[in-house]
Every structure is written in structure tokens, then in C-alpha cells.
């Protein structure tokens, strides 16, 4: 099991969203923040053997509702979760960035630093959220591919 730190920023984040600071919640945040890719519930289940599936589902659900994490789907349709930027609010996600799906390792990356084009919707349309996907090879898989 990976090393997990109980970080004060996670306690502050839970306080900010009026959530109890439970061990499983703090561990989920720590595990998710330690990765540079989005994480699926099955991946978290494999790391957190002492937390049952229903509890983990509820943690992910409340974190998404509160704007702590956002959901992104991989190429297989599996929901993955990543920590939101600090400007997300309850029921109002601001994580409008490119999500990159690697076609080899199946990891999902949030590419937050890219400038996205503005989208002008036709009259009468109102976007409530926005998701942009790209797929291909991540740097690690691309490097392996080039060595062949």
C-alpha cells in the first residue's frame, strides 16, 4: 500500500466544505493527490482494503457534489476522479480543461495548463459543464514506443 500522509490541507479542505474529517476521507484525498493521473473507484478499492465499496462510493459522490473532485471517463467508459482546482464550488465545477486518455496504459491525465479555445454556443443553448478529451500516447508510453 502506498505511503499516505495526513496533510493539514486536506483537513482544511474538508472543513471548508463542512465535511467530517474521517480517516477514509483523508486517505482518499491523500491517495488522489499523490497521483498525476485520475483514479478510478476500483483502483482506490485495491489500495484501501479496509474501506468497503459502499463507503468509498459515498466518499467519491460527496466529494464530487461538493466540488472537491471531478469525474472524467476513460476510453473504456470507466469513471475516474481527479482533485479539482480550488475555484470549484458545490454543484459548480470549474475544471474545464483537456483530459488526455492514453491508448496504451489507459491512464487519464488532467492537462490544466493548456489554453482552451472559447466555445460560442448558438443562441438558446446554455452549457452547464464542459469536457474536452484527447487520446493518444502519454509521455511514458510514447518514450517506450520510440525505443522499439
Automatic annotation (TrEMBL):
> Is Metal-binding given among the entry's keywords?
yes
Annotated InterPro entries: FUR, Fur_C, WH-like_DNA-bd_sf, WH_DNA-bd_sf
| Keyword annotations from UniProtKB, A to Z | DNA-binding, Metal-binding, Repressor, Transcription, Transcription regulation, Zinc
A GO molecular function assigned to this protein is: transcription cis-regulatory region binding
**This protein's superkingdom?**
Bacteria
Supply one GO BP term.
Answer: regulation of secondary metabolite biosynthetic process
Q: How is the cofactor bound?
A: Binds 1 zinc ion per subunit.
Q: Which Pfam families match?
A: FUR
Residues that hold Zn(2+) according to the record? 102, 105, 138, 141
Reply yes or no: does the keyword Repressor apply. Answer: yes
Q: What's the cofactor?
A: Zn(2+)
Q: PANTHER family under this entry? A: HYDROGEN PEROXIDE SENSITIVE REPRESSOR, ZINC UPTAKE REGULATION PROTEIN
Which family is it part of? Answer: Belongs to the Fur family.
In its UniProt entry, what is this protein called? Fur family transcriptional regulator, ferric uptake regulator
- Origin organism is Mucilaginibacter mallensis
Amino acid at each position: 500500500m502506498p505511503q499516505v500522509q495526513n496533510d493539514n490541507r486536506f483537513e482544511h479542505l474538508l472543513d471548508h466544505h463542512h465535511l467530517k474529517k474521517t480517516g477514509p476521507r483523508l486517505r482518499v484525498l491523500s491517495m488522489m493527490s499523490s497521483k498525476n493521473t485520475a483514479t478510478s473507484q476500483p483502483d482506490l478499492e485495491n489500495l484501501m482494503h479496509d474501506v468497503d465499496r459502499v463507503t468509498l462510493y459515498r466518499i467519491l459522490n460527496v466529494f464530487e457534489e461538493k466540488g472537491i473532485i471531478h469525474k472524467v471517463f476513460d476510453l473504456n467508459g470507466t469513471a475516474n476522479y481527479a482533485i479539482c482546482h480550488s475555484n470549484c464550488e458545490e454543484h459548480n465545477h470549474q475544471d474545464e480543461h483537456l483530459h488526455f486518455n492514453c491508448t496504451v496504459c489507459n491512464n487519464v491525465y488532467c492537462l490544466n495548463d493548456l489554453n482552451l479555445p472559447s466555445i460560442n454556443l448558438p443562441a438558446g443553448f446554455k452549457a452547464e459543464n464542459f469536457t474536452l478529451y484527447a487520446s493518444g500516447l502519454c509521455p511514458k508510453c510514447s518514450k517506450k514506443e520510440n525505443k522499439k
